[in-house]
Amino acid sequence: MSAAAEKTLQVEVWRGGTDGAYESFEVPAQENQTVLDVVTYIQRNLDAALAYRFACRVGVCGSCAMTVNGRPRWTCRTHVSRVAKNGELKLAPLQNLPLIRDLVTDMTPFFEKWQAARGRFVPGDGPKDRFAQVPPEEKQRADANAAIECINCGVCYSACDVVSWRDDYLGPAALNRAWAGYNDVRDGDRNGILKAVSSGAGCHTCHTHQSCAEHCPVSLNPTFSIAGLKRATLKASLKGELSE
Q: What is 108-243's CATH topology?
């Protein structure tokens, strides 16, 4: 057996609920091994009761997000060689979300805030049988395109410092989606988006720490989107449009 094949990883995994604790596992180190490979090995070979979430395994669904050595990441795209410290990994569930068990969180608050930020398309009054033409060079389309690729993995929400201390804050993902919707000229209630994100713990609660942009696995910049919402809501407020 080669020396490389004999190497092992020391893995600490959170077990149980909020009153749980870390449990230690020894996992064989492999070439090109991902963190998700490590978690899967533990569940299949060492402890079948380990709870975690994954689906596509190729960075499309975002469901495998966990906290790896203190940082929220997609585990399917995170290679152990990049994040292990002295052959050690510490795995925990995403922060800022209710814990179900082990590495699985309840995403309900995340998606409820998406709805609260009016993160859905409202049809306009145009002809239903006519295809809407939005020129690619239009600035609003460019702004919408820059924000539209979010896949709801929750990494930015887990990394957000404001969510950590204010749990009613809508969060970067919801506000990023609101900005994409606001810039969709086909939407029939764009002013309704501004009303949704300007009240309570909305876009003006953001402290512009850029944690969301730093951690986003698909390189989106929710801070930019939130800044756009701040400007748009201010202009609409000065015009009296948010009080209508």
A: Fumarate Reductase Iron-sulfur Protein; Chain B, domain 2 (1.10.1060)
**CATH code 3.10.20.30 region(s) in the chain:** 3-105
> Taking the CA of residue 176 as centre, how many other CA atoms within 13 Å lie in the half-sphere pointing to its CB?
25
What would the pLDDT profile of 75-130 be if each residue is shown by its tens digit? 999 999 999 999 999 999 999 999 999 999 999 999 999 999 998 888 877 776 67
Range(s) of the chain covered by CATH 1.10.1060.10: 108-243
Q: What interhelical angle do 172-182 and 108-116 show, nearest 10?
A: 30
AA identity, residue 151: I
CATH (residue range 3-105): 3.10.20.30
pLDDT digits (tens, 9 = 90+) for 5-43: 469 999 999 999 999 999 999 999 999 999 999 999 999
Give Cα separations from 35 to 13, 72, 112, 120 (angstroms). 12, 12, 29, 33
Asked if 80 and 87 touch (Cβ cutoff 8 Å), the reply is no
Here the tokens at position 143 are: 């702004």
